[in-house]
Amino acid sequence: MSDSAANHVDHILTEDRLFPPPKSLAEGAVIGSEAEYQKLYDQAANDPDTFWDAMGKKHLHWFEPFDQVCQWDAPDVAWFVNGKTNASYNCLDAHVLAGNGDRAAIIWEGEPGDTRTLTYSELLTEVCKAANGLRELGIEKGDVVSIYMPMTPELVIAMLACARIGAIHSVIFAGFSAESIADRNNDAQAKLVITANGLYRRGKVLPLKEVVDEALEKSTSVKHCLVLQRIADQETSMIEGRDIWWHDLVDSASADCPAVPLDSETPLFILYTSGSTGKPKGILHTTAGYNLWAKLTFQWVFDHREDDVYWCTADCGWITGHSYVVYGPLTAGATCLMYEGAPNYPAEDRFWELIEKYKVTTLYTAPTAIRAFIKWGDQHVDAHDLSSLRILGTVGEGINPEAWMWYHKKIGAERCPIVDTWWQTETGGIMMSPLPAITATKPGSCTKPLPGVIPAVIDEAGERIEDGFGGMLCIEKPWPGMLRGIWGDQERYVEQYWSKVPGMYLTGDNARRDSDGYYWIMGRIDDVINVSGHRLSTIEVESALVSHPAVCEAAVVGRPHELKGQGISAFVTVTTENPGEELRNELRMHVRKEIGALAQPDDIRFAAVLPKTRSGKIMRRLLRDIAAGRESAGDTSTLEDYTVMAKLREEDDN
Ligand code: 6R9
């Protein structure tokens, strides 16, 4: 264990397993050798203008060329200045004009088993019709459109229709409350809400339109509501003059709608993410830089090949859905599987059934899903042929090494590289990740930065930290996909991302770089636990707990402690029925043995479930309140299941 200075985060978990990339992937790979990666990385770092000039010209269509690559005056940035492009053109027209219109763009499966395939030509037609429909409703360039829809092709069509005419989409997870929708509508001054009359979830119908109706009572700027009839025989109240059926508007609209040439910095979308406290913030991304970053990172990280069937399981209500269901893969001309429903409906093998059925080559999912699969049991996996898989990906949280090993062995049959991709809503696309054909992976590390990403690890005093110690992860130089601001709140933008470490983008995560130059994300800065002056990262203690066979998931938080400053509270879900004092002691000893006495939890609570965001991230902030015995303050609008908190408090009382 390192000597603990107050300025850095201690690193106590040792992980020395190393998995070389499969040799078979090198031939024909997008980035096929270490030398090639190093060349790209060095070019982007040393001569960014030349590098991005070439990348911009090669990978996007320009109605008018840009005359400057990057204008940077931290934190203000503009990429591909004065160029004109269009993200919907890059996603659709470009492929159709290149003769690839018949290639499948989206292979969709609804939860009840209904299916639909859209080729690039068909998707283009649908997007044009929808874009003309939006215009009929008075939507113009610069208007904000909220989208609250199930994972159906129309969700993608709605996003691209906005992009086509320069309207700004704001996708809201279908499942958020009426209040959350109204907040977002009002903050963005949305003019239109696009929704559906329902969605299927675990065999039930959720009446989305009813939620929207309630939201619209408090949404002052919204003029219209466009409603997809997802559920055929669902009674749906429609308010005359305000509400329009998608099929009434779009089906008869003209399919002729040329993409509008848009300035590179035209806002493409706003996406609300929960701040740790206070109201959600609308992260703003603009057209050209974001589009390029999404495409390039998709190609690099998933080593995209023409015959791939790629499946990103994320919902479009999350940034992963924006960048890796829509803009990245479609700009790259990929064939994407899209699935509407739950992973455990009708049974816990739905994902494996889909992979077998569609011969999926690339699977991109989240640690929360992987932990659920482990819990549900290997028999669901064993029943299916997963030999089509080539590459596995993960995103959203750190993946505990034991979950990584399961993914590697059970899903990847020890032959598929795992790309553990670290990035954020704010970064627009993947920032650090293994490259499947060349990077030797270590379970729990997102390995190395992609070309164009210059990370720095900084201590509390603002100094760079030497390798091996944890500190605040910052990004030194601008990159094309970076956020351009928080919608309507420039002050918060500067304060949150640009003031603590001057001139650098502050990610809000802690990280450490090891002696091989690999990065290890250590969790959010706010989550660090200070035990007797030692600053511990949550993920390391959690990974130690998860490495015990009885533990499925673990969340660790600090709580006030008279002697140590902070004590460690652990919340765990386990496979054992009726866990008690014996297991509690065993887990304490296990952590002690794995990473040391200092990290031994002071209290361990067995929970049925942990509070998570809708994208599956454990909400440690809420657990901190429980551990400290306080009421929860701050925003809980992104919490997946409100009853979880009540259950945890009940368990606490017992
Ligand atoms: C894409 C996305 C961002 C935060 C990020 C970090 C955590 C995401 C991770 C990871 C460890 C990874 N995070 N990927 N932590 N390893 N591979 O998740 O965006 O929803 O904005 O969350 O998620 O803490 O700062 P977003």
Automatic annotation (TrEMBL):
Q: Which Gene3D superfamilies match?
A: 3.30.300.30, N-terminal domain of ligase-like (3.40.50.12780)
Q: One Pfam match, by short name?
A: AMP-binding
What is one GO biological process annotated to this record? Answer: acetyl-CoA biosynthetic process from acetate
Assigned EC number: 6.2.1.1
Family statement: Belongs to the ATP-dependent AMP-binding enzyme family.
Q: Where is the Acetyl-coenzyme A synthetase N-terminal domain?
A: 37-91
The UniProt annotation places CoA binding at 201-204, 320, 344, 532, 592
Catalyzed chemical reaction(s) = acetate + ATP + CoA = acetyl-CoA + AMP + diphosphate
**Post-translational modifications:** Acetylated. Deacetylation by the SIR2-homolog deacetylase activates the enzyme.
| Official protein name in the record | Acetyl-coenzyme A synthetase
Q: What gene name does this entry carry?
A: acsA
Is Signal set as a keyword in this record? Answer: no
Q: Which residues carry this modification: N6-acetyllysine?
A: 617
What function is annotated for this protein? Catalyzes the conversion of acetate into acetyl-CoA (AcCoA), an essential intermediate at the junction of anabolic and catabolic pathways. AcsA undergoes a two-step reaction. In the first half reaction, AcsA combines acetate with ATP to form acetyl-adenylate (AcAMP) intermediate. In the second half reaction, it can then transfer the acetyl group from AcAMP to the sulfhydryl group of CoA, forming the product AcCoA.
Q: Which PROSITE patterns match?
A: AMP_BINDING
Classification of source organism? Bacteria, Pseudomonadati, Planctomycetota, Planctomycetia, Pirellulales
Q: Which GO terms describe its molecular function?
A: acetate-CoA ligase activity; AMP binding; ATP binding; metal ion binding
